[in-house]
From TrEMBL:
Protein name as annotated: Aspartate carbamoyltransferase
Start and end residues of each Aspartate/ornithine carbamoyltransferase carbamoyl-P binding domain: 9-148
Domain Aspartate carbamoyltransferase regulatory subunit C-terminal stretches: 320-357
Pfam families hit by this protein: OTCace, OTCace_N, PyrI_C
Source organism of this protein record: Ruminococcus albus
Subunit structure: Heterododecamer (2C3:3R2) of six catalytic PyrB chains organized as two trimers (C3), and six regulatory PyrI chains organized as three dimers (R2).
Lineage, uppermost ranks: Bacteria, Bacillati, Bacillota, Clostridia, Eubacteriales
Entry GO MF terms: amino acid binding; aspartate carbamoyltransferase activity
């Protein structure tokens, strides 16, 4: 039986209100001021970390966050050494771990997979990245960095550069920043790696001004924040397509010289070649500090999600249409075929509850 309403889960940050995010940011600020006050806050609690895809920062910052709160961790970071290698489906693996742990963090290469896990899990589930779809805790990290370093989340001109098509951190950040007054966006990519239509819809719906450009050199001078991203090699259909896209955007000292003194550079990391090492010493380079903020916001998140009275939101708001297939070939419903096909809306266009893609009714 699907667990549509029972647990608190973090699948998409936009399932929660801006004031809920702001409480988390304030809590992280308090933790940073006095981390020693929290060393026993999660004593006796266990976090399960299920990483079906490589990770350094997300996984380790979740683990250190839990350890710094006095809790313990179980899990895997290589599905090849778990029962996944024997062909176990997501439902069974996550159902079992959610019975062992008090809270579960999951990363998976397929869009919608973490929501699929949350449907039957017995504990709260946190999305640590589902394919090219969303990455809400990276966005919380980005919001904390912006709040601490810029003083406000309003009125910022944000440039996002690189793989805007496949970069889940870009999708989550745009959805979040669209909730703040006065945000404008400059989308810097090749036409092949432009932002997907369903994220552009979020921009248009919020009435936020945005420009799509191909030159970083021309755009850098107008930005308050530059969010660099790597080209997501693992999401390309062929190595040849990746080869055509790599190396287009490299932020170096020369480009930094054209940027405002107050502009800050963010990057979710890992970097490949899109930020030259020479930029690391520039005081505007914020990416290493940003990774550290990630640990504190995850401490705040774990604490909040383990509270009995935490706000719960429904996982599914639409209905089952089992005869209807999602139009996104990279959606989890095509891989785990036992999943009910949940869609939002009615009429001729439905929105998949797992990956958010729009599908014409068959
Ligand atoms: C990002 C991710 O996994 O989406 N990394 C991270 O979590 N900090 C960005 C990336 O892999 O390019």
């Amino acid at each position: 039986m699907a667990n549509l309403y029972n647990n608190l889960n973090l699948i998409d940050l936009n399932d929660y209100s801006v004031s809920w995010w702001e409480k988390l940011l304030d809590r992280a600020h308090e933790i940073m001021a006095d981390p020693s006050a929290y060393v026993e806050s999660c004593k006796g609690k266990i976090m399960g970390t299920l990483f079906y895809e490589p990770s350094t920062r997300t996984q380790m910052s979740f683990q250190t966050a839990m350890l710094r709160l006095g809790g313990t961790i179980i899990g895997f970071d290589n599905p090849a050494t778990s029962s996944v290698a024997k062909g176990e489906n997501i439902k069974d693996t996550t159902k079992i771990v959610s019975g062992y742990a008090d809270i579960m963090v999951m990363r998976h290469p397929v869009a919608g997979s973490v929501k699929a896990a949350a449907l039957t899990a017995d504990c709260p589930v946190i999305n640590a990245g589902d394919g090219g779809h969303l990455h809400p805790t990276q966005t919380l990290t980005d919001l904390l960095t912006l709040k601490e370093e810029k003083g406000s989340l309003e009125g910022l001109c944000i440039g996002l550069c690189g793989d805007l098509k496949n970069g889940r951190t870009v999708h989550s950040l745009i959805k979040a920043m669209s909730c703040f007054k006065g945000t404008s966006f400059v989308l810097i990519s090749t036409p092949e790696l432009a932002l997907p239509a369903y994220i552009k819809d979020v921009l248009s719906a919020g009435g936020h001004p945005y420009k799509e450009v191909s030159s970083l050199d021309d755009a850098v001078g107008m930005l308050d924040v530059l969010y660099m991203t790597r080209i997501q090699r693992e999401r390309f259909a062929s190595p040849e397509e990746y080869e055509k896209q790599k190396g287009h955007y490299i932020l170096d000292k020369k480009k930094m010289a054209k940027a405002k003194e107050s502009m800050i550079v963010l990057h979710p990391l890992p970097r490949v070649d899109e930020i030259a090492i020479e930029v690391d010493d520039d005081p505007r380079a914020m990416y290493f500090k940003q990774a550290k903020y990630g640990m504190y916001i995850r401490m705040a998140l774990i604490l909040t999600m383990l509270e009995e009275n935490s706000l719960k939101v429904p996982l599914i708001t639409g209905k089952v249409h089992n005869h209807q297939k999602c139009s996104n070939p990279l959606c989890i419903t095509h891989k785990e075929t036992y999943l009910p096909h949940y869609f939002r809306g009615d009429g001729t266009m439905l929105e998949c509850e797992y990956c958010d893609e729009r599908t014409l009714v068959e």
